[in-house]
Amino acid sequence: MIQGASADGASAKEKFAKEALAKAASVKDASVKGASARGAFVCIVGPSGAGKDSLLMHARSILANDPAIVFPRRLVTREHNDAEDHDSISREAYEAGVREGAFCLHWEAHGLGYALPMAVREAVEGGKVVVCNVSRAIISEIFERFDNVHVVLITAPPTVIMERLRQRGRESGASIDARMERSKRLSAVLNPDLTIMNTGPVEIGGERLSRFLRRVAEKCAVVREGV
Ligand SMILES: Nc1ncnc2c1ncn2[C@@H]1O[C@H](COP(=O)(O)OP(=O)(O)O)[C@@H](O)[C@H]1O
Ligand SMILES: O=P(O)(O)OC[C@H]1O[C@H](OP(=O)(O)OP(=O)(O)O)[C@H](O)[C@@H]1O
């Protein structure tokens, strides 16, 4: 039984954990190198609060009718909220998934566990452009795992980010400070294909992102069809 839970609570949690794992684990082998040339993996990265989820949501709505570009939901050990579109997963289910190799990719940040389901690999192999908000700390792992990787950095000046994190109102002051500190450590190591300075309206950044994604999809189609 899960510690600290009642018998009923534990069985509900275990059921939830099993369902989440079943969803995430359609394929067990996480090695994809060499098998992903048909599609592309697009990493959306940048400091917490820069606007990654906002631009992703906008680009997703612009590209809703384009079947070549997909935006898989992440599994996050955080409650659902309107600012991002993720599947909530319990800490127990997340840890079981990591142990059992059930995820395509996983990482820890801000005291939370994040994972991408195995369906991500299947989509890239199937020729899709797969767009995911990921940690800057796992970019090199993604390059090792996938052949065709693109990196989009979404950023903004630190003062703007700080203000946005405050206004978002999801984290405490200490948690905002920790996010700002983490960004300082991770920002130097990137060599992005596209940088979006998200200081204008969300619509402008979202349109820029969607234009880039369309270009990636067009290139994938050209390579696949040998034109
Ligand atoms: N271009 C923008 N202009 C004004 N506010 C923005 C813009 N982009 C994002 N925001 C706001 O900033 C906050 C952080 O954005 P979010 O998309 O959650 O960032 P991230 O996913 O990078 O952590 C949210 O409250 C969001 O509404
Ligand atoms: O290692 P880093 O590059 O700093 O990234 C850490 C995490 O922060 C982002 O998530 P998320 O969008 O959930 O962050 P948020 O909680 O600030 O929205 C990103 O997708 C990672 O999951």
Mean pLDDT: 84
Q: Find the count of extended strands (DSSP E, 2+ residues).
A: 9
Predict the CATH topology of the domain at 34-72 and 127-225.
Rossmann fold
Query: What small ligands are held by the chains?
Result: adenosine-5'-diphosphate, 1-O-pyrophosphono-5-O-phosphono-alpha-D-ribofuranose
Top CATH class of the domain at 34-72 and 127-225 = Alpha Beta
Biggest sheet character? 5 strands, parallel
Give the overall shape: globular
Distance from first to last alpha carbon: 58 Å
Structural class: alpha/beta
Lateral arrangement of strands in the main beta sheet? 2-7-1-8-9
What features would you describe in this structure?
The protein is an alpha/beta fold and 227 residues long. The chain has a domain at 34-72 and 127-225: 3-Layer(aba) Sandwich (Rossmann fold). The protein contains 8 helices and 9 strands. It has helices spanning 7-24, 52-62, 91-99, 119-125, 139-145, 158-168, 173-186, 202-225, and strands at residues 40-45, 69-70, 75-76, 87-88, 103-109, 112-117, 129-133, 149-155, 194-197. The strands form 2 sheets. The protein has a 5-stranded parallel beta sheet with strand order 2-7-1-8-9, with helices on both faces. A hairpin with a 2-residue loop joins β5 and β6 (112-117). α2 (52-62) packs across α8 and α6 packs antiparallel against α7 (173-186). The chain is globular, with a radius of gyration of 18 Å. Residues 1-10 and 23-36 have low confidence and may be disordered. Bound molecules: adenosine-5'-diphosphate and 1-O-pyrophosphono-5-O-phosphono-alpha-D-ribofuranose. Adenosine-5'-diphosphate is lined by residues 46, 48-54, 83, 164, 167-168, 198, 201-202, 205. One of its GO terms (molecular function) is ATP binding. Residues 39-214 form the Guanylate kinase-like domain.
